[in-house]
Amino acid sequence: NCSISKSNPFELIKLISSFENNFRVHGDNAVSKDIISFISEIQNIEKNSVVLLDNLSFSTIFEHIFVIIEKLGCKLDELDKFVNLSIITNDPVEHLKIKFIFQVLGINTDNIKFNFSELNIETKIDYHISLKPFNQRFSGNQNEHDQFKKLQYGNDLSKYEIIDLINNVKSGTTMSFIVAPNILFNESKSARFFRHELLENTKILAIIQLPKNSLIATSMAPSLIILRKSSSKVSDYNIFMSDIDKSSVDFLFAKKEIIKKYNEFQNKKLIKNETDLGFSVNTSELKENWSLFDKK
To answer: Which of 4, 79, 66 is nearest to 34 (CA)?
Structure first.
């Protein structure tokens, strides 16, 4: 069985993080810890998987690690034997905190880096988890802003950062992002271009609408997108979807059903009893509802 208490990191972690709160801080925003754990719980992380946690806060990283060791049935100080974990954080303070705790716990610190280019991963990343880009706006001088606008993303930095991350990983990488609802259905040129890029360069595995209280800085109901980087365009396939807003079930109970239905969908490519918490949509139907960017 998984054992966190034997390594006993909880009290030490709590001293230098916000573990007593229900939200984990990420820059100007904060994400519900239930959502954070859900993102790892729904992934099919197996032994020897290569997992990258990208620009997450100290406490968020341990939310994911606790889920991973429970999935794999290992102890914290055995983590290196079960999964190849890499961490990117460009915050010097967070970097020191993570490295310090890892050293205390006897976890390898070689793959804690400041940016993506520093990673030395010969094989592809199996799971890339990032919460950094969410509804961010571009800030810079007028010349930089004019250059950024040429990239088709208007003033929306979050769309650009997600596509940039996708472009920088190898084919086969499963990636997870929390996005604002306007990214999925907004009619703006930048939103349509973003959706076009997703369908051209990835296979979208799931679009899961999250509860409205998932983010502390907004009342919007964000969505979790799970996708897989593709070396060539993938068309005519089904996508798992879930809409918790149409369900009266509390998220703590709903997420178990969502994970169950997502696993069924992944294994059988269909869901026997579709509900609002789990149903499939074909890409042809999705394209009818998504206004896409016309390059002509």
So the answer is: 66
